[in-house]
Amino acid sequence: MRRFPIELLIVALSVVMLVLGWRIYGTGEMGRFGPAVHAQKAPSELYARMLVRYLKPPVYEEEYRMSDVEGVSKFQYAIRGYNGREVTVTAPPARVYDVSFFFGRLGQDGIWQLVDKPPLPNTDAQYTVYVKQLADYQHGERTVTFTDPGYWAVKAGRQFEIDLSKGVPKDLLRIQSAQAADPRYQQIVTDFRDFGPDEFRRNVALAQARVRGSHS
Question: Residue 113: left (phi > 0), alpha (psi -120 to 50), or beta?
Fold first, then answer.
């Protein structure tokens, strides 16, 4: 009679133990590490843009563009004159100057709460601010248009609210009101203007001077 090799018996027992161990512990570990693997693969994209269009020469429009895709930041500035002159300042893609910090500042300064404002008379420029965020599989974007951020920050009047469900108020001079001034518009513009390392801002200033100088 042939004897069953002890080596094959050990191998068979090892396989059985591995299968049982995986069924007991393996699925739980995969569930524990699943969110981490998911987070590592989650896309991250941030975009911010401010376009300033002027109604009178010499500058026709200015544009700031920033993006951060998977940790790689890009940003540029362009200025165009009424005479057709255009200068663009582009920073090379880098991981050193992080646009995500700038995007976080915009959020802290209230970009997601701003709303369109009606154009003011005698204004000289119109501002359009656009932001887009894709992170952790969540998406959000917003476009806001306004003029004269300095006015909305300081000089805006009061907003009045009449609740007709309580009847017509007897004294319209004493109806509920709130201050309409909102400094966030000016702060968002300042954030874009102050963005970037020193060299980038110096080149932006040179581009502005070059376009303005070419008009005279």
Answer: alpha
Residues 113-127 pLDDT 10s? 999 999 988 899 999
The kind and range of the H/E element at 158 are strand 158-160
Alpha carbon 167 to its chain centroid, in Å, reads: 44
Rounded Cα gap, residues 119 and 191, in angstroms: 22
The full set of domain ranges for the chain reads 1-41, 44-112+123-146+187-215
Q: Looking at residue 90, what is its pLDDT?
A: 95
Cα 49 to chain center, whole Å?
A: 8
Q: How far apart are CA 13 and CA 36, in angstroms?
A: 34
> Could you tell me if 200 and 75 are in contact, meaning their C-beta atoms sit under 8 angstroms apart?
yes
To 10 degrees, the CA torsion angle through 20, 22, 28, 32? Answer: 160
Report how far residue 51's alpha carbon sits from residue 206's, in angstroms, rounded to the nearest whole number: 19
**Residue 184: which H helix or E strand, with range?**
helix 184-193
Q: How far apart are CA 198 and CA 173, in angstroms?
A: 52
Residue 155 scores a pLDDT above 80: no
pTM equals: 0.72
Alpha-carbon gap, residue 149 to 120, rounded angstroms: 10
